[in-house]
Amino acid sequence: MAKSLYISTTNARSGKSTIVLGIMQLLLRDLQNVGFFRPIINPEDGERDHDINLVLSHFYLGMRYEDTYAMTLDEAKKLVNAGKQNEMIEMILNKYKQLEEKYDFVLCGGIDFVVGNEAFTFDINAVVAANMGCPALVVTNAHNATTDEIVSLNQLAMEDLEDKGVDILGIMVNRAEETQTEAILEALQKDIKVENCSFHVIPEDSNLMKPTVADLKKWLGAEVIYGKKAMDKMIDGYVIAAMQINNFLNYIKEDSLVVTAGDRTDIILSAMASRLSNSYPNISGILLTGGIVPSESIQRLVEGWEGIPVPILLVKDHTYPTMKNLNHLHARLEPDNPKKIASALGLFEAHVDTQEMRRKLIERKSVNVTPQMFEYNLIQKAKKNKQHIVLPEGTGERILNACDILLRRDVCEVTLLGKEEEIQAKISKLGLDLAGAHIVEPNKSPLYEEYVQEFYEMRKNKKGMNMDVARDLISDVTYFATMMVHKGHADGMVSGSVNTTAHTIKPAFQIIKTKPDATIVSSIFLMCLKDRVLAFGDCAVNPTPNAEQLAEVAIGSAQTAEIFGVEPRVAMLSYSTGSSGKGAEVEKVIEATRIAKERCPDLLLEGPIQYDAAIDPSVAKTKLPDSKVAGKATVFIFPDLNTGNNTYKAVQRSSDQVVAIGPVLQGLNKPVNDLSRGCTVPDIVNTVAITAVQAQAAKGLV
């Protein structure tokens, strides 16, 4: 089942609160443990967020208010304007993931549209939903909009959400004209082509949209002089009473709010009298402006009216600025108005196919993963069971900056190798705090002699090996680090920011060696596309693998992908699909596919298959319509290093939204991973986290 739903809006005053209440009530019919979360809130001064307050009060979820949101709109805008959008997303993910672990389902209320911030909120809603991995329900305000405008607005929203890889569960058009609902529904179904998307149109209930006198009090900060028990009366229009009584009374309509200066005794008395008369409509209340309190004699008269059926409020501003403020007043569902909440829920249930919605909420799960979401989940996995990773290139500035991040985020235990004075000098120069890192100079370590002796015993039958050679090699930081991993003094090693791949892998071959069921060491790159994560192998180690080796790469890549949350569907790539091509290279892939299927019959695997048929569902329908892998492959096995290396680089460079993490080495008894010499600090952080997760898997902790 799905774990979350993100309710996103396309415009302001969409009636999102009604939708939130309706969806929450649906969820609580099937699930006991449901949480509510808003990534970004925009509360009024000194007030709690409206939607959070409404949900927590009405459904008694038992959540702490501070756990239900990540930041304010002002805080989010500052981060984005400072070029720190990734930091903003990480802060949101941190709060959301805490709730995701605690609750069976988390309903997420998107960012409200605020006048002047429309473009920001529209785009950020899509970015946040994508990175949280939530399916989205899109809500649109249809009030005073044509059918074409409504469709166009939703088409723009769909394009933005789909472009960012968000799975769209449905569209709800709210506040539609009663006579327009069928036309809107037909137009949406005809013009919006989103797979498995449901459409719902909810007409406007005028009573829900009318503000109450209590809303007015809150909006204006008004003082209630009389009639506190009548604050739930709804307001339907305003009468500015600046005329004589006989003219003023002609303008009164049902539920009008009378606005007048506090010294207009004649208006106050006539308004009160109209409320008691059967000949005039019932007004909703009286608003006195200018901060003028009625005289004592008038107060005595009003107090004599038993029950005071009309609330009388006072504001300090004069009539003109007060009316300007009132023009922006809109109705809201408040926790202390159960009648309105009941009406809202009734409206939702009357116009939404609740059975279909319940089924979708329980069965639907977004499979899209953004690069930042993958990196976040990777770090969180590494932190769950902290491992000890050794970094032999301890004097490198990128390594030290990465170490600072790893320690600050408590990802793993770290050992840096190199000359201690040189490392400390670099740390001081960079202004870092690496007090939590272990710094080891190999030939001064108490483990040095033990490592030399053991390495000599392992290699003494090799040509040219003697104790002096063993000492020289173990003095090398890469050999020393590899021996640490072999002896269990570290759980994994990451190197290669300065050293070559050969210098990283050769000691691993000699000391750690391959797993009993592995004949080669191979690699995958984890390719983080904008909406999914794929595994490409082997793109870094084996130039021309034979059929047996290619089958081993496929099985190992599937196992590695699964460790990192990628459901393995393996495509054995070739320049032909199925039986369409001939040649030695195709035959090699055919044979490798056969061997892999024989060894792992339950593995979803297809080959030979071309890249387009493996990744594109429309091509797959033509070339391999019955395949369980074609069109939805997640693990791509290339026939040789030339093809694999060039393809991963082409995909990586095709878009600035693609992140390539790796190479991740597989086949060794314990994890050792290689960095590229052009790696960035984030690359190092990710590779260390990957190594830590591999170490967890080797111990059976994943």
TrEMBL record:
A Pfam family matched in the record: PTA_PTB
Domain DRTGG residue range list: 215-328
Catalyzed chemical reaction(s): acetyl-CoA + phosphate = acetyl phosphate + CoA
Compartments where located: Cytoplasm
Phosphate acetyl/butaryl transferase domain segment(s): 373-692
Entry keyword rRNA processing: no
Pathway listed: Metabolic intermediate biosynthesis; acetyl-CoA biosynthesis; acetyl-CoA from acetate: step 2/2
Organism domain of life: Bacteria
Keyword RNA-binding: no
Record EC number: 2.3.1.8
Keywords: Acyltransferase, Cytoplasm, Transferase
Self-association and partners: Homohexamer.
Assigned protein family: In the C-terminal section; belongs to the phosphate acetyltransferase and butyryltransferase family.
Function of the protein: Involved in acetate metabolism.
Domain notes from UniProt: The N-terminal region seems to be important for proper quaternary structure. The C-terminal region contains the substrate-binding site.
Protein name per UniProt: Phosphate acetyltransferase
Organism: Desulfoluna limicola
Record gene name: pta_1
